[in-house]
Amino acid sequence: MKIQPRQQLLEIWRAAARSSYVDGQWVWGGDGRWDSIKDAEQLLCIMLPATEIPRFRLDQPDLTEDDVAAALAPFGNKLRIPQVLVKALSDYHRRYSQAGRPIFPGGSYLAARDPTEVLTEDQLSLDVVESFALSITLTLATLGFVGVYRNALAPGTYQQHQLDELDELVRLAKMRLTEAMVGLLRSFTVFTYEAVGPHGQHLIRTINQSNLSDNRLVTDLREALRPTIAGLRDLTVGIEGLNDLESPDRLFECGWSWGVIPGAPQVDFVESSGTQRAGYAYDAPDLYFTVQALDGIADLFSARTRLLRLLDDEQLRLAAALQLRWELTQNYWSVIAGFGTGRWPLEDLPWRTTDGAESDYFSLLVTSIATRGLLEDRDSEADLSRLGRVLSELANRARITRRPIAADTALAMHHPGVAIALDTEPEKKSETEQASGSEPAAEAEVPELNWVAADFAPLLLKRTIRIARNLTSVQLRGQLLSLADEIWDHLLKRRIQVGRNRGLWDQPAGAFDPAAASVLTTAEADAGRLSWHHTVRVVESLVFAADLARTDPLSSAELDVLAGELLAEAEHLFDKQQLVGSTESGANMRTAMQALRTRLRHAREIVVERPGTTVALVLDVLRELDSLAEARRDVTGAS
String of b and e for 402-430 (b: at least 16 CB within 10 Å)? Predict the structure, then answer.
């Protein structure tokens, strides 16, 4: 792996510190704008490595490494760095609270579908699932960071008001974490529809890779989804009205909408700081927001969350409800992505959603959701190889690993990105209305919302490294890591090159030939507008790469056998050399034999974990034993 995560993360920290901390003040979003998602992403660029990689820790100043502290030099020295972060985290939690209640506005990430229209303040302030999910990740990182930092403070070195600030940050983070979990519970949805309707026909065409009749396919699919249906039917918190799941002529999707759905029940066992907001988002799952929700929820039951006991009793109950939805959603999409006995629907690029939209970006999202289930439920090596080929083909089609042609339309996936429509209807339209395209008259009175996703390349890198982490085949892991290196080379060319934001992302035109990249030559693309969204995706990928680098190397069965056989020969020859050696051998000979004994003992200890290293050690021992045998033969004439 050529990525070198430690060096790259330190470079990003230097750039992030330079961009975020100017004249002793934190500059939010890099441009001072008000945006809960962008500001959380900015903080996570520092907090993720600091809390996930032991050698990047900042919560124990005495243990902070010199090069890590140097990367954050704009914040100050080792003692000052955590103080700056605590103040920034406290400001963030206060900044996104109103009347004592945390808020999760989409802000600048929300756009009008018609560029000539202007969104209202009410629309810009709508809570969105991505903010819920990011808040879970950020608040858990905050709680863990503050807990360790406070314990590391020497008694008497800090004034009471500083300790009070830490206590207040913990209180605010716990409140925000609870509200984010409630928001995700009330944004989960199950969308049922007739198999003969538009949604059902789109799903059937997507997954029918064996030319089955519609009736046979619906029957087989419902049978494969029986465990998921049973689990969804038993949900009791934050969702209601799932009777249609039992109908044999209906299909369904489960996952997260882009915000709280209409009619979502109140989560009554939570002592909320205010009334839980009425729903407004279209009552159907969206692939993009489902991926964001799943990533955030996974942090709730990570090893770090459990070990540091970051959740209280109320949050543990919420986490249990979210984990059940997390597992059901993973199971659903695993079945859909790998349905049938031949080619997977996931391999039939691009993915088609049930509203008829098609994009390679959707294929990448489905891969993100389905990976865990495919890893657990299938013949691992064969199916992981297929997943790897899907990722490789997506990199090709997105012109990351292949040269684009002039004015290549595939580049639009990088800039401006894939537009995702955010419907704000209070209720679902009937399938007849959807098919006819009829709209209620009131819908024309307010701008319709869009969400633009342009993070294909960093998300592809993140998923590639994550799948490689789960491989046990040396060859397959090597292939995926080679792909990761190619994607990384692409991303390096997209770094901003000049100005205060240099070293961050995103400048998409930099990765392509000027003639081919003519579709990217807008003023914004050329200038390299700072995107914390792209930057934090890269940071996530590098954190995964660092985790991979910390693991033991893989070995093949052939290498295991070779290491064992060489070690056995070396040990036998060593014993033979001792047998024929004289007890009156000189000190140099005894020292040499003792050194060989030590090396053989070490080789025996590591033969299982590091057979390649064992081979290298044993070969050195065999050479020295042969030299000793030759020297004895020259002196005595005996073998």
Answer: eebeeebebbebbbbbbbbebbbeeebbe
